[in-house]
Amino acid sequence: MTSLGWAQIALVLAAILAAAIPLARYIAAVAAGRVTFLAPVERAFYAAGGIDPARGMGWRGYTLAMLAANAAGFLLLYALLRLQGVLPFNPQGFDGIPPFLAFNTAISFVTNTNWQAYSGEAAMSYLSQMAGLTVQNFLSAATGMALALAFCRAFAAGGLRDLGNFWADLVRVTLYILLPLALVVGVAFVAMGMPQTFARYAEATTLEGAAQTVPLGPVAFQVAIKHLGTNGGGFFGTNSAHPFEGPSALATALQIWSHQVIPFAMALAFGHIVGDRRQGWALLAVMLAFVLGGTWIVYAAEAAGNPLHIALGVDPAAGNMEGKEVRFGQALVALFTATTTGASNGAVNAMFDSFTPLGGLVPLFLIQLGEVLPGGVGAGLYGMIVFVLLAVFVAGLMVGRTPEYLGKKVQAREIKLAMLAVLVLPAVILGFTAVSLVLPVAVASIQDQGPHGLSEMLYAYSSAAGNNGSAFGGLTADTPWMNTTLGIAMALGRFAYIVPMMAIAGSIAAKPKLAASTGTFPTHGPLFAGLLAGVILILGGLQFMPALALGPIAEHFLLFAGKTF
Amino acid sequence: MNAILRPALSIVGLFTLLLGLAAPIAFTGAAGLVFPVQAGGSLIGRDGRVVGSALLGQDFTAARYFHPRPSATTEADPEQEGATRPAPYNAAASAASQLGPTSAALKDAVAQRVAALGGGPVPADAVTASGSGLDPHISPENAAQQIRRVAEARGLPEARVAALVQQHTQGREFGILGEPRVNVLALNLALDGAR
């Protein structure tokens, strides 16, 4: 670690915070319907759908509308992928995507996971990338943000009968937040060197006379929303490590900014919507603490290098360079890693599978903590507030009072639903991992022997259920078993969480909003932030400790004992 | 049911037209006008032929060229259905080794590469495969270790080659971001033009 490295980290984080503060105010204005500069376009959407944007929906209506939109998106994307061979914008003449892989990919992009069992430049037509994957990058992000806005509204006032209109939220978030940001960031990406063309791949003859195929495509626009929407699915197989998808250190820094700014802004927007900005800052402080802690561990572990290789005569100065690009440096790799897994983005600018054991433990654990640090756009905020409810419940138990949050009493029903939601992740991750570790058809997908092989499998189901999408890439993911079970894990991780979460929103919304009294436990100070962090670590992380001990932690000790597999 | 299906289908359909076709097509047109080189893949031409992209690494094995980092990319093996064989810097299929830190295969590969360079200490980037398999850069330390070989193979004074390396060493972006590096293709193109 160097001070110059930490200066890079500080610079990028400062740029994120500086933008998140005004963006939060803007998001709150969009949520309230006060932003109208594209009103004619908005009206056209409502007219086509027969939608009255002013008609509020209860939690059931809101959730059903969301599920219908996602089902339609899934079917359309599945059809596009299967049929890409006979559709236009396919200059490389790629065949249709096979059924298991198309199922996995469609679920993956609709749930904002963007797990990829294919390599973009070798499988996807330009039409699939644009009209299929890019569209779902927007809509899955907008879905998460709409749900989060509905959840925030539940705390804003007492005796609410509705949570807003899903269609209006979806359209406004897309038109006023995601699309303008994607256009601006996309232009910057082109300027930095990302291709944006419909031309077929270029054929080059290298200086030594060999043939080299240069893959091209409409890359920059898709990569912009891939980060802004915390989707993470790469245009190319090696994601943001690819020189066309991460052409420079500046581009990688802008990508970090892009996948972190909306999740942070959402936390602050929560403060605006509930009318107490300190509440947003408390959530942000906890998120930032975990991001910094994760970055520090990855940076320290990777900059120290691999002791086995150092013993062979490799200069330790540059750290562990297997799976890493020269241009980024260890500091920006560490920050990218902690933010992409903390934020449920899943893009990578280096290969986690080749990280040192502790460097690889961090992204895995940040996913397992529930993707709330800061989590995906929208999804991170509602996940965080579910943890907040559990934290005030724990605090209430300690002092023997009925817990309340922002003047809303938190009672047995909400706590049961919150526990139901929080248990989805460990049940899906540990369940599927355990089964897959004893089934020969699944074990065949593992590349590395020893504890690292267990980490590969555990990482895959963590990434899928957490809707992250990054991978320990040595795992062979394109098999019927992995495509199917990972697809189910992604759907459960997304929707089996959303339904109880929205039920909590409906129940909270109807409650009266009580005035704060001297007995109210303040939820904006360091004491509460510390309690919240503890609840996330214990309720979110403890279930995974045995699995982590057998995987990355065992590997760490074996590595330093000089053992290889 | 119609109250849910109609908005779902029309919103997803309209957004597919707007975000999946209209916006990217307009964006592509504008990008091609304002940044034609970058939007087209930063291709480099020499004598009327495309020799590569400024952003993508390519394989060099001759002694007279600077060598890039090891690359883990592969290609389909024509002799065995479904199998692959090593094909460094195959830009049609970017790939990393994905080998873990306790992998014996990785340790052996690193040991062989260190031995091929005449033993340690060697810069880490010279004996490890990159994340993309297409890393266009090497570290200045890696380049420095290759100067003597290249100078001898070309019959150029070492100082002349060292000066070219110096000239093609890029510092941290804005003095702070990333790492110092040398673009191997750009350096080798300059070498071919040097006397």
Number of domain modules of chain B: 2
Please indicate the percent range of residues of chain B in DSSP E strands (runs of 2 or more): 5-15%
Shape of chain A: globular
H-E order of chain B: HHEEEEHEHHEEH
Helix content estimate of chain B: 40-55%
Count of individual beta strands of chain A: 4
Query: How do the helices and strands follow one another from N- to C-terminus of chain A?
Result: HHHHHHHEEHHHHHHHEEHHHHHH
Biggest pleated sheet of chain B:
3 strands, antiparallel
What is the radius of gyration of chain A? 23 Å
Averaged pLDDT of chain B: 96
Kindly name the structural category of chain A: mainly alpha
Q: Give me the count of strands of chain B.
A: 7
**How far from one another are the termini of chain A?**
29 Å
| Major sheet details of chain A | 2 strands, antiparallel
The structure class of chain B reads alpha+beta
Largest interface: A-B, 126 and 101 residues
Tally of DSSP helical segments of chain B:
6
Oligomer: heterodimer
Looking across the biggest beta sheet of chain A, what order are the strands in?
A: 1-2
Low-pLDDT ranges of chain B? none
Q: What gyration radius of chain B follows from the Cα positions, in whole Å?
A: 22 Å
Task: Summarize the structure in words.
The complex is a heterodimer of chains A (565) and B (195). In chain A, strands 1-2 form a two-stranded antiparallel sheet. Chain A has a two-stranded antiparallel ribbon with strand order 3-4. Chain A contains 20 helices and four strands. The two termini of chain A are 29 Å apart. In chain A, strand 1 and strand 2 form a beta hairpin. In chain A, helix 1 packs parallel to helix 12 and helix 9 packs parallel to helix 12. Chain A is mostly helical and 565 residues long. Chain B is an alpha+beta fold and 195 residues long. In chain B, the strands form three sheets. Chain B has a three-stranded antiparallel sheet with strand order 5-7-6. Chain B has a two-stranded antiparallel ribbon with strand order 1-2. Chain B is extended. Chain B folds into two domains: 36 residues; 151 residues, no CATH class. The interface between A and B is large, with 126 and 101 residues. Chain B: The system is composed of three essential subunits: KdpA, KdpB and KdpC. Chain B: One of its GO terms (cellular component) is plasma membrane. Chain B: GO terms for molecular function: ATP binding; P-type potassium transmembrane transporter activity. Chain B: It is a single-pass membrane protein.
